[in-house]
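Let us practice reading a record.
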Amino acid sequence: FFFLMIRRPPRSTQSRSSAASDVYKRQIQYATKVLEFKRDMNKIVDEIFEANMLLQKAKDQQFGDFMQQYERSAGYLAVYCDMELVKGMVGNKEKEVEEKIEAIMDLFKCIRARDIFLKQYTKLLAKRLLQGKSVSEDCERNLLAKLQMEIGVGEVGKLQKMMEDINISKDESEQFKKYSQENNLLKGLEVNVQVITGASWPNDVAQGRFKMPSDLQSIATKFEQWYQRKYHGRHLQWLMNQGTSDLNFLVNEKSKYLLKVTNAQVCILMLFNRFPDFTFEKLLSILEMKQQDLVTQLVFLVKNGVLIKENPEAKESFEMIESISINKEFKNVKKIVPCIPQKSKSAPEPSPVIGEIDEIQIQRANVIDAAVVRIMKARRKAMLNDIQAECLKLITLFKPQPLMIKQRIETLIERDFLKRNENTKTLFEYIA
C-alpha cells in the first residue's frame, strides 16, 4: 500500500495558528497586552516627563514586581517570541523586525524569573528548528544576540549551538543525498536527516523514543555507515518521535493519495505493507512505543479513514486485543490528506510552571549552591547578610529569596561544605 518519501515539509503544510489551542492564543493575547501597556507607559514617561530617570526606574521596577507576582508571565513572553518568529515577522521590513525585538527585550529586562523564560524559549526554539518553521535565521540570531548581551554567553551558548547543529545538518543532508544518488542507496526515496548534539538540546526532544520497523531501519543503517566513515567514533541515536513525512498511499491502481504524517505514523503504516491487520497489543510490542503515544498517533489515522478499528464507536481508545487494519476502500476528496495530531482545545495549559515547578526549583537550588560555594571559597569566612547580598549580584537568571539562600546554606552545612562559627551563629566558614 505504501511507498515512503521523507522530506522536510513546506511551511504551508501546517501553520502554527491552525494547530494552536485556545490556551496558546490566550498566552499570546496576554503577552501582547502587556507589551502594549509597557510601550504606552514608555511613551508617557518619555514624552510627558521628558524621560525622567527616576520615573523610568520606578516604571521598570513596577513592571518587574508585577511579572514576579505572576511567574507564568516569563513563559508567556517566550511563547509570544515563538509566535513572532514563526509567523509574526513574516513580510516585515528590517526596521519593523528590529522594533519588535527591542520591545520584547524592553519587557524581558523587567523579568526576574529569567530561568523560566529561558527554559520555555529553549523548548520552543528546538521545535522551530527541527520543524523548519523559523521566519528567518537572521531574526533568530538577532534576538539571541540581544539575549546574550543581557544574560551572558554561558546561558545563550546552548541556543546558538542548536542553530549551528541545524546548519551543519543541512550541509550533511545534501552530501548524503548526493552520495545516495550516486550509489543508488535509497532507490528514489527522499530522506532528510538532522544530526543534533544531545548535550545542547532540551531533554524532552529525546522523550517518546521507539523502535523502527525493518524497512526504515535499513535506511537508518545506510546513513549510519556513511556518517561513521566521515566521523569515526560518534554514536547516533534515532529520534523518530521528531519530524514529519510525506507518505504515498496507494489504495489501488487508480487511487493515490499523499498523506502528511509524523515519523511515528510512518513507522505504524509501514508495518501494514507486510500484513493487512494488527492488534493494538501487537503494535505496542513491535514498536516498543508508550501506550498513550501510540493511541495519539492511531486516533488521527482512524479519524481520517486511513485505518479501520474493530470497535469504531470508541474513537479515541483501543482495547489490547482490538484489531486495526488498512482501509482498502479509502476515499477522500482531497489528494493531500493531513493526519498529523493536533493539540486539543481542551488540553491543559502548557505552562512552564505547572508540571515543571519541581525541576525549576531543583535547578535554582543548584545555582544557589554553586554561588554560595564560590563566595565562601574566595572569602573563607562571611556573614549571612553578606552571602545573601553577593548571591543577588552573582545570580542573574532569577532573584533568589533570602529565605531560600538561608535554606541552601543549611543544606551545604549538612553536606560538609560549610560550618557555622561556634561563637557567632550568622558567621559561616568554608571547609576546605
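A brief commentary: The CA atoms of residues 362 and 382 lie 25 Å apart.
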